[in-house]
Structure formats: structure tokens, C-alpha cells
Specification:
The chain has about 300 residues and is of the alpha/beta class. About 45% of the residues lie in helices and about 10% in strands.
Length: about 300
């Protein structure tokens, strides 16, 4: 299916959703797959709507995700320049029979303690939005390096910020996922790879603060994926996938995702896998087929 085909499909699905209101959409079908089996094969995944279906506006991607067979999605901020907010996005989720795994409100650089007030304001709003969205996880970053601060001071400030928001999150039943990056293509950030983020989460000692374990970042930063994950399973709250190089779907790069995901399940992780990658060549049908195949080969369901 070409990019223009997906664009036309989005327009038709969006029009249908407007007509149907909040009614469930038709059973998704994808070329080359048994439609009765496809939804189960995609059940372990949350499709990232900021990386998938980028050929159409954000609001039209929900219908495409549902049509492809996904049950769950994720995205970055909910409040956007196109006017999207928690209420309008919840309507899109409901209209397309989708649930939200997690989203990422914009966080201040709170390694600087002077910005902890902004951090608290952000968390309060994120909790309110999460309740509207029916979501129990948010991803927070906010670990950009701060000019004039030493690394030790930034680590201390970031840890203190996490400790300040932990009681709010615990009371709300919301988990904040701290996402470390890598130093290959995400420059000037404090947290990269599995350490020191894992040590920081252990220091905070709150069940509401966990690590978002993005294997794309982990491979670029440190490799040794299975051993690092297994030894830090106690702090993992959510997992994302993306192959290296290119940040495309598993199977397009150097990582053996079948072995990796078998090890992840063996280590005790039973949650969803966020598909935070751009399907190669915007070939969404291929990416869906390969995600389905990975489910079977890795024994995810």
C-alpha cells in the first residue's frame, strides 16, 4: 500500500468515525493476514502514533491504528498545536475502540531544583489528563543538561524532583516512567543507557517511579541487552522497541528481537511493548505483518 493509499484511507475512516460518533469501528483487516487472528497477534503492542502513520494528521492516525489491528496506542504530548487535548483525544480513542498505554507530557529541565515548581504543576496537570484518558502511565524526560551545573548536582536535583512528585503519583495511582536516551543521536542529556537511571529509581524508592526501557536507546548506548535488562528488571515499568540502525521495526537491523523478547518475558516482564519506531519506507502493511510474526516467533501470547 502506498503513502497516498494510507492518506485516502485515513480520510475515509475519519469521515466514518464522525458519522458513527463513538460507535465501534469495523473489524480491522490487513492484507495478507487472517483478520480473526490479527488482533490477537498485535495485542502485545502499543502503536506509537508519533512514529507511525506520520503521512496524515495526528487526529487521523487513531483510525489507521485501529484499522491495522492495534488495540492499544501511545503517543507523546496530548496537548498539541493542532488543538488536541485530553478530552478530544479520549473521544478519538473511544470512537476507534482503542486504549492508551502511556503518553509523555512535556517536562521542564528539572535537574535544576529551581524548576521543581514547574515540575509539580506539570505532574498535577498530567494526572488530571491521565484520568480523562483512562491511562495509568506517563513518561517523563526533563533530564536535559543544565548549563553551569555539575553532573553530580544535576543528578541530585533530578533525583530530588522525582522524590517530590512521587507522593502525588502514588496517591493518584499513576506511574511515571523515566526514559533514558543515548549519546549517539540524543545529545546533551543527563541520563543515557540503563545506568544511572536504574540506580536513581532505586534511590527514590517509590513504586510510582519506574524506568521506561527503550531497547533502541539501550542498544546504541551500551548493548548487552539481555543481561542489562535482566539485572534491572526490578525497576522496569514499560518497554519500547526499535531496531538499530535506522529506528525501524524489529527485523530491519542488527538486534535479534526473537531472542531478546523471549528473554524479556523470561525475566518477568509481562507488560506491553511500545512500538516507538518509524516503519521502514512508510510501509505500514509490512510493519504490521512483521509485528504479527514477531509475536508468534517470540511466543508473546
Amino acid at each position: 500500500m502506498t503513502t497516498s493509499d494510507w492518506t485516502r484511507r485515513a480520510a475515509m475512516l475519519a469521515a466514518g468515525a464522525m458519522t458513527a460518533g463513538t460507535a465501534a469501528v469495523a473489524k480491522p483487516k490487513t492484507k495478507g493476514e487472517d483478520p480473526k487472528k490479527l488482533p490477537a497477534s498485535l495485542a502485545p503492542y502499543a502503536c506509537n502514533l508519533d512514529m507511525w502513520f506520520k503521512t496524515v494528521p495526528f487526529k487521523d492516525r487513531f483510525a489507521l491504528a485501529a484499522r491495522a489491528g492495534f488495540r492499544t496506542v501511545e503517543f507523546w504530548p496530548v496537548n498539541r498545536d493542532d488543538g488536541s487535548n485530553a478530552q478530544s483525544v479520549r473521544a478519538l480513542l473511544d470512537a476507534n475502540g482503542l486504549s492508551l498505554a502511556q503518553y509523555a507530557p512535556t517536562a521542564p529541565a528539572f535537574a535544576d531544583p529551581a524548576r521543581h515548581g514547574e515540575l509539580l504543576d506539570m505532574i498535577r496537570q498530567a494526572i488530571a489528563d491521565a484520568r480523562v484518558l483512562g491511562c495509568s502511565r506517563i513518561t517523563i524526560v526533563g533530564h536535559a543538561n543544565v548549563v553551569g551545573m555539575t553532573r553530580e548536582a544535576m543528578l541530585s536535583g533530578y533525583t530530588a524532583g522525582l522524590m517530590r512528585i512521587a507522593p502525588l503519583l502514588e496517591d493518584a495511582g499513576i506511574t511515571a516512567l523515566v526514559e533514558p536516551f543515548n549519546r549517539v543521536n540524543h545529545l546533551n542529556f543527563l541520563l543515557n543507557g540503563s545506568q544511572p537511571a536504574s540506580a536513581m529509581i532505586r534511590a527514590v524508592k517509590s513504586p510510582a517511579i519506574r524506568v521506561l526501557w527503550d531497547f533502541y536507546h539501550m542498544q546504541l548506548e551500551e548493548g548487552d541487552l539481555i543481561e542489562k535488562f535482566t539485572s534491572n528488571i526490578d525497576v522496569v515499568g514499560y518497554v519500547q522497541l526499535g531496531d538499530v540502525p535506522g529506528r525501524h521495526q524489529p527485523g530491519t537491523g542488527e538486534v535479534n528481537h526473537v531472542n531478546l523478547l523471549k528473554a524479556v518475558r523470561k525475566a518477568g516482564y509481562t507488560g506491553l511493548f511500545g512500538l516507538e519506531y518509524s516503519p521502514l519506507d512508510n510501509d505500514f502493511d509490512r510493519a504490521v505483518r512483521e509485528a504479527s510474526q514477531l509475536t508468534a516467533e517470540a511466543g508473546l501470547v
